[in-house]
Amino acid sequence: MSDPRPYVAVVDDEESVRRALVRLLRASAFDVEAFASGQSFLEALPARRPDCLVLDIQMAGLTGRDLQRHLAVCEVRIPVIIMTAYDEPMMREQCLADGAYAYFRKPLRGDALMASINAAITHGPRNSPLQNAARP
Length: 136
Known about the structure:
- By secondary structure, the chain is α/β, with parallel strands linked by helices.
- The chain is built from 6 helices and 5 strands.
- The protein has a single domain, classed as Response regulator (Rossmann fold), CATH 3.40.50.
- The chain starts with 6 loop residues before the first strand and ends with a helix.
- The relative contact order is 0.15.
């Protein structure tokens, strides 16, 4: 019997961020799994696809941006929410143009993140600039 709760994956190389997001998401009745790298997420992906991916941009090895592009090239349609401690307007534009559902600067506001996760799960992934332009 499968878990009826939406499954959210968190990918961030900072352990404290992963722990905080796992607590927040579990308290909000999500099934959640955290990954310390983009590579570890990709290795787990065949076994279970998340309903939403919360992804840090700045990581060693496979960056969040690399992972977002890889998923798009492989046509793995998962709503992606980007988070970063280093907000750069050009990076924001690129991530959103490439289909990110939302883009947040750390530290995250829990209520805003939860609203975006719920909306992303309800509406599904964005996959084109035309869809991005049509959404608020």
